[in-house]
Structure formats: C-alpha cells, structure tokens
Amino acid sequence: MEKQNWRELVQRVIKTEMSFRGVKYQALSQRLEEKGIIQSADNLRNKVNKGIMGADLFLQILVVLNARPLNVADMQEIIGDLSRPAQEDE
Fold first, then answer.
1. Closest to 16 in 3D by CA, of 56, 83, 73, 61
2. Most distant CA pair in the chain: distance in Å?
3. Are 14 and 48 in contact (CB under 8 A)?
4. CB atoms within 10 A of CB 57
5. How many helices and strands, by DSSP H and E, does the chain display?
6. Rounded Cα gap, residues 89 and 61, in angstroms
7. Neighbouring C-alpha atoms within 13 Å toward the C-beta of 20
C-alpha cells in the first residue's frame, strides 16, 4: 500500500470523527489546549488535510474527540475503498 493511502486513512478517520461530533478546527484546537497541547486551528487543518502528523497528535485528537473505537476491520475497509479506482458517473 502506498504512503499516500495511509495519509488518506488518517485524514478520513479524523474528519469523520469531527463531522460525527460537529467539531470544527477551532473547537478541536481548544479541546487540545485544555489538555496542554497547543495547535492552532490552521495548523490542525493543514496536518489533517495532508494526513501527516505524529502518532502522538493523532491519538490525542482521537481522545479529545471521544472517538468511536477504531478497529482493524474498519481501517481495512477504508484502505480497500482507497485502493479501488474512482468510478465515473455514467
């Protein structure tokens, strides 16, 4: 699997959890700050959109979002979706 697919997996997991909870980047930044983790909303947006961040920040984000359990089967499903060619509208 390509490195880009792993990055897209990180991006999808975080964006899904943010959407599920109705949390925007500013609120995410504030939640992290309450735990002593300083990340601006713009910095978080850039990291999430690129899917590039340290494992510690990834886990911290999941904790402050009170994310649903992430299991291997869910990750494999997302990876499978990323591996399939995009289908064009007919």
1. 61
2. 50
3. yes
4. 17
5. 5, 0
6. 35
7. 11
For residues 11 and 56, what is the distance between their CA atoms, to the nearest angstrom?
Answer: 15
- Does 36 score more than 80 pLDDT? yes
Judge contact between 51 and 6, C-beta under 8 A.
Answer: yes
Residues 65-86: tens digit of each pLDDT: 999 888 898 888 888 888 777 6
Question: How far from the centroid of its chain's Cα atoms is residue 25's Cα?
Answer: 12
52: which DSSP letter?
A: -
The pLDDT-based confidence of 90 (bands split at 50, 70, 90) is very low
Cα–Cα distance for residue pair 65/68, rounded to 1 Å: 9
Enumerate residues 6+ apart whose C-beta is below 8 A from 58: 10, 14
Q: Which of 66, 69, 61 is nearest to 30 (CA)?
A: 61
Residue 58 amino acid letter:
F
